[in-house]
## 1
Amino acid sequence: MAAAGAAGTDLYDRPVSTDTSTTRPPLGLRTSDLVTAAATGLLTLPDPARRTPATRFVLRTAVAGTTGAGVWLGTDGEPALDLPGRFAFTAGAVGFVYGAAELGEAVDRALQRRLVRMGVRRPRLTMALAGVGASLAISLLERRAEAGEEEDAPEGPVLRPLPEPVRELVSAILSHTEDYDSLRLRAQLTGAREEVWGEPEDAPRLVELSVPENAPLAVPHSFTFPVSARFTSARAVPCAARVLVSGGRLAAVVVDLDEDAWEVLAEDWDAAGGDPDPLADVTLPRAQDVILVTEARG
């Protein structure tokens, strides 16, 4: 329970920064978006056709470096990419720029000739401004898409009907004794729903509960209900399902190892030595598959 309390503190009691000294770019753009756009314009100004092979290589390197920096900064904070993934993604982008340099310069020359035929006096400047505008437009679309995804994401838990097997299990545990305000807890269970954060699990080991606000509160307010539903997992591990009460309300039903298993594991289980998680394949049992045991409370 101490671990669960620590986890709750980490999730809900994180300090919120009030530092407003950093000025954000307009329209929701990132600083990396503005830097990439400015670099795009500056690197478009030189005419590759008028450069020597050495200076052309320098220009290509500058374009590749700018692209790599933009990719690196743009992937900062992406949950799907760890540090090696960001390195690989950035290196791939740099390699693509080098590989497509000849084709890009050919398109660049064709576009410049077309602008000259159209009577544009400064084709390179026109192309540079167009590059800046295109870069900013793409970044703006990306930021708006990200903002839309954030707005669509639920700000809190989703409440859904409590699965009947879970309701039957909790009811069996609460009905095993008339003590510990079990009548009020059973009344709460009548209107209880499942509280889901993120994607629901198909076979959970823990189900969080949400009860109506007007439900009668149990006394004592926060405790583990002293009746456990004992069962044995498919790997013959002794387990127990228990009901947690918080603030006088049903909070969750969770599977853990029972006391006998803890005593055995304390002597024999070696996680560092490769022993598997004893609860890896364990899910909430059905009411008909458990033995109800009233536990002594110290």
Note: The beta strands are 158-161, 193-196, 206-210, 223-224, 227-232, 238-246, 249-257, 291-294.
## 2
Amino acid sequence: MRTLVYPLFVLCTFSSAVSASLRFSLGFGGEVSAMQNTPYEKNLTEHLGLNSQHALSGFSGVTPYASEWRATEFIPELYPLRPVLDLRASIDIMKIQNFTVEAFASVSGIIPLSTAYQDGIYQVHEKNTCVSVDYTNCPLAALNFVDTSGAGTYAAQLNSNLYSTSLVGGVTFFHPIGIGLEGLWSYGGDLGIVAQTFLQSATFVASRCADGSSTPCAQENQVRVVQGELKTTAAYSFGPLVGLTLRYERENSWWFAEFGTTVVFLFSRWENSGYTNFVAAGTQAFTQSAHEMGVVDAVNTFAVLPRFVLRAGVRL
């Protein structure tokens, strides 16, 4: 590998050759989403009944029922890294001493992403226990969602998907580093603003057989299912962006390559909705809303999202 050198006359010649350029690039990379996952995992934990007892009451016809239940064992975990597809356009707008100032705009995250796919054991516990069938005081046990001991073990599956698009606008201040590999290397500092659309949807299905045997059940009327869905949308989501970009390009060539790292400071307001259903032999027996399960209807969040992207593009 040729050592980078700094012949001033070469840098000046190269700089003038690529001035006032319009660039388009396509990039792929990853975003560390752990900080944004934390409040969503908390909502999922509440929605699945894992944090506390939840009241289950109402009427079946004219028969009242009232009990409490909670779940254990299943701990939802989202992937800490999301793949990122990035489309970017930039144009030179001015020169300040040895810096070239570029204005850029980009759109990323335009493909749906799977943020969790998880199998495990899910245990339902009814607070009341009854020695015989008692729909009024032990409705879950009466319909065989739990055993007479007040517990039922389910095979569970969680699937979560993210639909998100980020629009970014800003400026980059590029400065040449030197010549190497027959091309010019330069680095730049990015400043920008991000606006994001956000929809996270999680579906959960847990199943068991009424007689306690493992699934699939021998008969359809033995199937007991706890299923739910939680949707989170952003009423707004925006924040500043800072980053660094390393660029390589050759004189009189139409292509260039970049490696970029950015950090987004994202302020969002999430709105949550969903349900949890208990289904016996294909018939809905009980239902509870996400609010009844302890998920707040709306919450303000803040996340720091580091991102890295490798880009390849054309220069016009």
Note: The chain has one domain: 8-315.
## 3
Amino acid sequence: MGPAIYFSKNTEYCTNFIITGNIFHRNGKQRKIPFVDKYENSHIYLNGVHNSAISSNTFSVAKDDGGGGIASLYYGIVCRNIDGTVISGNILKGGAIKEEIVILTSKRG
């Protein structure tokens, strides 16, 4: 388990892409092995992304199938070390338990 979309500069250099028109429903569920970074409990996790856009997506939180288990996830969109990335026009209300958008560091954008 983990984010539906995960881009990290640790795995590859990510630049010039668009994430648009998606329905993110309960991604990032906690797995048996704890996440290395608590922010991986999210729909989208971006680290080291440049010149990109995230727009016109919807996000929601839920429990396991049948309504059991613990509601997840904690964060909607998490960005770390981004540059020239635009986040706009997303429906995030009710899309995360703790924070809808987390910007940890940003050069501009």
Note: The two ends are 29 Å apart (CA to CA).
